[in-house]
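Chapter summary example.
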Amino acid sequence: MITRQELINQIEDYKPFNEQEKMDKLLLLNWIRNNDNAFSRENTVAHMTASAWVVNKDRSKVLMVYHNIYNSWSWLGGHADGETDLLSVALREVKEEAGITNVKPVSEEIFSLESLTVDGHVKKGNYISSHLHLNVTYLLEADSDEAVSIKADENSGVAWFSPEKALEKSTEPWFVANVYSKLLEKMKQL
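The structure predicted for these 190 residues follows.
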């Protein structure tokens, strides 16, 4: 179990890949240090989330879900909901959202950092105001032959795509240009 301070230390030690990560690293650290409820959705301005870039063993495929709120194929992940061990959050979310059981970290180290804008939307009948997801991403590995299943209240599709097809399938231009392309580039450097 990673404590709040251990996560702060991991983020401090993280070497940003680009200017976006450099700026977002500072934002994440400041937010965690100055907001007791940084890991809770009760903080309606911004809260911590964890995402997973899930690849198969030979890195020829990326696991994506068709996200119902955003109407787009996207990576997997979710809210910390009070938990400071964000790797555990990412692993749990992949299992819940894709219905797989055999998923493991390629590394326990942070793979990427992002500050993500979330437009106002309705979830489970309640309006959620626009806010930020202060996100830590982990690179995870799973077996692309394992059966997948949707989580109907969150997604309506789960599929493996080639890295190039994953970029084509997403209909969120900012994510394609600034997050998914970055993650693919970072994967090539492993």
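To summarize the output: The two ends are 26 Å apart (CA to CA).
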